[in-house]
């Protein structure tokens, strides 16, 4: 009873593979290493280098390893890139999911966990946002994920598959032991930018908008620690194994921190008073995104361990220091090997 994890060498995928391997689960990874790192896949976990949409490869892996469940992370995640090159996103996300589902159906895989995103909501009418909120993505990225959700729903209904689609809010932090973390070159996420500033890799952090009608004028986000998110995938798998029905669940903590509070947390835990510059609003930004977590809390046996902004900042910083000072060269080598 092996679990196939696509994109298991990437940021969230590798934390999930690590959590599963540590729990004694039999796991195999398919990853094309376009943004992932082979060094992130734990020893003893087979890694097949290739596309999650390569049906021959995936069917071979499913048969050879008796795969009964798929956790599907592989995909592209940069919103502005999706605006510039929408077809790349519909290929890498929507079409890849279609091919993967086709292989899963052919091989009788009965459980599927899908990486979705709060970007499917677009600009929400209410926060915290419940799963029943209208889905109005603002980018091809959001649409590519929403289209995948719709396919998954239809395939599950037609073919007796059960699935959990997890809609991630703002994923941040790193493995508490700093074994793995976010290593994508050019990542634009706030916590990543702030820890780069704290480690002297950039001169300042821009705050995109300080005139929002929020308590301190900056945007508010529901940051979730990547290791808690990894455990949410394990909980989703247990739920399906116990006979749970298909579900779409928000994955956040249900509380928000402002951009300024987040930057302050990084300054505090690092002890480095890097420069912060107030800048104009970033086009397309949503003011406040917070998950309504009622459904995930009632359906999954999932208790977050790191629901604390300073803890998230501390782990992100420890990883960034390690990445910057020790491992960057190795990772690049591993990525191009
Ligand atoms: N942000 C910022 N400066 C940065 C990066 C991000 O002020 O250098 C803000 C951004 O405008 C948004 C919030 O931080 O309000 C979260 O942005 P991020 O790109 O991390 O995630 P998003 O919520 O856009 O997916």
TrEMBL record:
Gene Ontology biological process terms, A to Z: galactose catabolic process via UDP-galactose, Leloir pathway
Cofactor: NAD(+)
InterPro entries in the cross-refs: Epimerase_deHydtase, NAD(P)-bd_dom_sf, UDP_G4E
Short name of one Pfam family: Epimerase
GO MF annotation terms: UDP-glucose 4-epimerase activity
Superkingdom in the source lineage: Bacteria
Catalytic activity from the UniProt record: UDP-alpha-D-glucose = UDP-alpha-D-galactose
Span of domain NAD-dependent epimerase/dehydratase: 3-252
Involved pathway(s): Carbohydrate metabolism; galactose metabolism
Gene3D superfamilies attached to this UniProt entry: NAD(P)-binding Rossmann-like Domain (3.40.50.720), UDP-galactose 4-epimerase, domain 1 (3.90.25.10)
Keyword annotations: Carbohydrate metabolism, Isomerase, NAD
Keyword hit for Calcium: no
EC number per UniProt: 5.1.3.2
Similarity comment text for this entry: Belongs to the NAD(P)-dependent epimerase/dehydratase family.
Subunit structure: Homodimer.
Protein name in the entry: UDP-glucose 4-epimerase
Organism of derivation: Bradyrhizobium sediminis
